[in-house]
Amino acid sequence: MATNLSISPAKAQEIMKRADGAMAKLNKIRGKTEEKVGEVFKMVETVGGALAVGYARAKWGEVTVGPEIPIEALVGAGLSLTAFLDLPGKYSEHLHNVGNGILGGWGTLEAVKLGGGIVLSKEEYERLNMPKQTMQAQGEVVEDKPARREVNALPPNGARQTARETFARQEQSQDVPVERS
What we know:
By secondary structure, the chain is mainly α. The chain has 6 helices and 2 strands, in the order αββααααα.
């Protein structure tokens, strides 16, 4: 028994039209997906740059180059300038994103300092929040004076300093105890 597999020209035209419509829909979905994935990459690069700044500052403290230029500002500006000059070609946008993240992270840390605050490392934070009993068990002297918070974390000469330097200065001074919540 022979099967007739012939398709009329009208039927073939209809199948081709449906296939073209399906391909157009797939291309539209692909275009939107590429757009969204591109936005996710931008976000990851920018936030990753800011996270890297925060991690590096917590791990190594403030690192400066030359006449007190923070390394974060130098690297962020360098990446952005390289991208503005279009030196990496098609990858310029990625350098812009990472550079913007690094500059954003550095700007946030500088804003905290300008506001009179300090950026604490994990160890410093835990030490401030340590209960008195634990501190006494570790051999630290705990004063029973009421603690108050120092408003300005800068030393009398106004120079910048790390959180460790601030705590050391405060602990040496009997007049300004550090608040331990």
